[in-house]
């Protein structure tokens, strides 16, 4: 019957798989809710990451490994069955089995002694004491393996759990409170790359650039493969005017297995494009193009990167490079017809370099209809007489 039911179960769609997986993980900042049930921002972000990884072909184990690495083992409702976690789940069962077996043996001996009529009665308390000792010793073993627990803690150990809890609390705290919490984590684990990176980012938000640089440098040194540290340090280096350093971090990031949320962050902040602009201002167009091409190697249809590449090439004024730039701009608009930078840049290039007034007006008009019009692009179009 079980085999037949499994055989007849229809294949899960990607959406079904993503929802099922979300039910298997606890919301990191909620009480008693799964990621699927909670509607807090971090739960929504995790659901998006799960869906993206499922659509990208990741299997359940890959997704589980990523989430456990990011949020700790306590997020996972399903124990791994190996190592300390598996032992903690199995030991209580073994303890109960040993105790029951001892009790059964004791009862048999009591029954046997009762039927014999002349048996020695002192064996009963001895057997009972033996069962009790086995249970107590096994209980002590469980406690030692599991680590000490306070209210609300689980059986996964106190230091690891306390640092993970502090990191989760810091993620939803105010900037000043987050710095305090990350510092507490670093007192327990001085080389914790996540705490270093996010404390550095908190310092930057609070205006302490010196502390931010120190923490971000330490985070990358502690774990050069931690994507968040690379992004944060690249952003700090951009603010510091270190375009080459920022570019190196982003190029290194491209070689890492970063979660989808990191790519979303880069797109939302236009970090790569802004670093490329600064490289061009420093006279290194080729380095800027290498940086953009590195990003396009990961996502060839990234409209923002295509638009920036086309804009930088066209601005040189060299006929051959202008032509290549126009191709990139056309690809950017084709990938996202409503991308503000693609529309604005192509409008200017059509007007200034191609003499295509009709095409420039069409792009500018499309830009003007967008609900969100970046101010710098509006100024650019107005300066060329393409926007009132």
From TrEMBL:
<comment type="similarity">
    <text>Belongs to the CcmH/CycL/Ccl2/NrfF family.</text>
</comment>
<keyword id="KW-0472">Membrane</keyword>
<dbReference type="GO" id="GO:0046872">
    <property type="term" value="F:metal ion binding"/>
</dbReference>
<keyword id="KW-0349">Heme</keyword>
<feature type="domain" description="CcmH/CycL/Ccl2/NrfF N-terminal">
    <location>
        <begin position="14"/>
        <end position="112"/>
    </location>
</feature>
<protein>
    <recommendedName>
        <fullName>CcmH/CycL/Ccl2/NrfF N-terminal domain-containing protein</fullName>
    </recommendedName>
</protein>
<keyword id="KW-0479">Metal-binding</keyword>
<dbReference type="GO" id="GO:0005886">
    <property type="term" value="C:plasma membrane"/>
</dbReference>
<keyword id="KW-0732">Signal</keyword>
<dbReference type="InterPro" id="IPR011990">
    <property type="entry name" value="TPR-like_helical_dom_sf"/>
</dbReference>
<feature type="transmembrane region" description="Helical">
    <location>
        <begin position="86"/>
        <end position="106"/>
    </location>
</feature>
<dbReference type="Pfam" id="PF13432">
    <property type="entry name" value="TPR_16"/>
</dbReference>
<keyword id="KW-0408">Iron</keyword>
<dbReference type="InterPro" id="IPR038297">
    <property type="entry name" value="CcmH/CycL/NrfF/Ccl2_sf"/>
</dbReference>
<keyword id="KW-1133">Transmembrane helix</keyword>
<dbReference type="Pfam" id="PF03918">
    <property type="entry name" value="CcmH"/>
</dbReference>
<dbReference type="InterPro" id="IPR005616">
    <property type="entry name" value="CcmH/CycL/Ccl2/NrfF_N"/>
</dbReference>
<dbReference type="InterPro" id="IPR051263">
    <property type="entry name" value="C-type_cytochrome_biogenesis"/>
</dbReference>
<keyword id="KW-0812">Transmembrane</keyword>
<feature type="transmembrane region" description="Helical">
    <location>
        <begin position="126"/>
        <end position="145"/>
    </location>
</feature>
